[in-house]
Amino acid sequence: MTISVTVSNDGDVAGDEVVFAFFRPVSTGVTGPGTLLNKQLFDYQRVSLEPLESTRASFTVTRSSMALVDEKGNVVSFPGSYEVIVSNGGSERLTFNVEVKGGEAILRARVQPFPLSEASGTAD
């Protein structure tokens, strides 16, 4: 799914705008670390605009872009209803509802660190 928003410079001076994309759970069906989440940044875009110019900022929303790290260190996708928030960091914001279906899915298992006995090098 791709979300595109129009960003406009209504002023008479060129400038940059940073557009942020966040997600947050909105259903009680969301389990895991999502139950503690206020909102999580998953992407952002900086756009440069001339006076009175408009452009599009686009964000691709995938199951992995809305994943969280569980208590074991795995990157996991949790099913449930989420809200995607696109904002300039101030009062301007748009919201979109997204449903993640299926079961809990480990997208990337935690990488086990090497035991210290296998490390090499010298200490100062």
TrEMBL record:
Name it: Fibronectin type III-like domain-containing protein
Where does the Fibronectin type III-like domain start and stop, copy by copy?
A: 17-92
The record's listing under InterPro entries reads: Fn3-like (IPR026891), Ig-like_fold (IPR013783)
Pfam families (UniProt xref): Fn3-like (PF14310)
**Which source organism?**
Phytophthora ramorum
Q: Where on the tree of life does the source sit, at the highest rank?
A: Eukaryota
